[in-house]
Amino acid sequence: MTTASRTPAAGRLHRPLLMTTVLMAVLTVFCVFAMAFDDRMLLNESVWLKPMKFAIAFTLYAGTLAWLLSFPHKGKRLTWWMGAIFSLTAIVDVGFIVVQAARGTFSHFNDSEDAVNTIGQQIFQSGVPGLFLANLVIALVLSWQKITDRPTSRAIHAGLGIAVAGMFLGYFMGFTGKQQATDAYGKPVDLVAGHTVVEGQPALRDGVDTMPVTHWSTNGGDMRIAHFLGLHGIQILILASFALAWFAPRVPWLRGERARADLIWVLALGYSGLLAITFWQALRGQAVTAPDAATLGALAAVAAFVAAGFGLVYAVRGRAALVPSLTDAGTSADSEISAAAPRPVSASPMSR
C-alpha cells in the first residue's frame, strides 16, 4: 500500500521564487513577440532568442524550487533565504541579458569596454556564483530529509544534485578560448570565451552551424547541452516519480514506495551517465549530431545499466510485493472453499 504524499498548503509556495517564475513567464511571451518584430541577429540567431531561452529555463527551475520548498522541512528559514537570493540573482542576471539584447550585443563573455557592458559584466560575474551557491545550500539542506513520499523525495534529492553539477559544468565554458564576432550592427566584438569546442579553435566557433530551435552546434562540441541536461534533470525525475505513482494502482509490484524509489535511483544514475557523456563529447569537440563509436558505446553502456537496474529492482522488490499477494489470494480461496463446504447436520432430540 502506498503512503499518501503531503501536498503544500495553499499560499505556502515560496513567494520570491513564485514571483520570479511569473516574471520569467511574462518575459518569455515578450521575447516571442520581440522576435516577430525585431530582425536584428547575433551569431545567426535573433537577439531575443537568448533572453527567451533563459526565461524559459528560469520559469521551469524557479517554479520547481518554489514548489519543493513549500513542503515542511528542517532548516526552512535558511532555505527561504537561499530561495530569495536565487530569485534576486536570477532577475538581475536575466535583466542584464535583456539589456544587452536590446542593445544588440552579447551578454556572455563580452570584452567590450563601454560603461554599460563593463558594469554589467561585473554584476554578471558576481551573480552567477550566487545562483550556484544558493542552489548548493538548498540541495545540502534537503538532501538528507524525507520531504514528501519516498519516490518523489528521492527524485528531489537526486535532481538537486544533478542541477548543482549542471551549474558547475557551465563554468568550463570560460576556458574554451577567445573568439572574434560582430554585434547586431556589424561592429567587431571580442569574446573572452564561448560555448563551442572545435578542433583547430577557429576565430569564430559559436553560431556557425547549428541545430534548429535549440541552436546547439553541429560543427563542434557544444557545452551548453550538458549544462541544459543538468539544470532540468530535476523536472524529469519528478515527472518520472509522478508517472510511477500513476502506474502503481495498475502494476502490483509498483505499489510499494520502496520499489518506485529504487527505480528513481536507477533513472538518476542513468541520467547522470548521459550528462557525463554529453560533457565528455563536447570537450572532444564532437557535435551531438555526430557521435563516434566511443560515444555510442558509452550510451549503450548507460542504457544497459538502466535496463539491468530496472530488472534488479523488479527481481528484488517485485517478488517481495507479489508473494504477500499470492498468500492473500490463497487464504481467500481457502476461506471460500470452507464456506462452500456442507456442514454436518446435528441429530434432533427426538431421533435419539
TrEMBL record:
Transmembrane segments: 16-37, 52-71, 78-102, 122-143, 155-173, 225-249, 261-283, 295-316
Signal peptide boundaries: none
Keywords recorded for this protein, A-Z: Membrane, Transmembrane, Transmembrane helix
Keyword presence, Transmembrane helix: yes
Protein's recorded name: Uncharacterized protein
